[in-house]
Write a structure and sequence with these properties.
Helix 1 runs antiparallel to helix 2. The chain has 74 residues and is mostly helical. The protein has three helices and no strands.
Length: 74
């Protein structure tokens, strides 16, 4: 898997899991499914950082997301 794609998917999954966590906590439920999605997102992000020589800087992350979107979206 392309590390840039893994980073983008990891950040997207992490962002989408936040409302699920908040919903579970407000209902008084344990956020089990949300915790699993956070673990998956963290794994994707760690994989991307380890596979990219030099890692990612915070300035480069928006460019990577745009490049991945341009590459995979029609």
């Amino acid at each position: 898997m392309d590390p840039d794609l893994a980073l983008t998917l990891g950040l997207l999954i992490a962002a989408l899991s936040i409302p699920s966590i908040m919903s579970a906590m407000s209902d008084g439920r344990a956020p089990r499914a949300s915790a699993l999605t956070v673990l998956i997102a963290g794994g994707l992000i760690i994989y991307a950082v380890r596979e990219t020589p030099g890692g990612y800087s915070l300035k480069r992350i928006p460019d990577v997301i745009v490049e991945v979107a341009a590459r995979y979206l029609p």
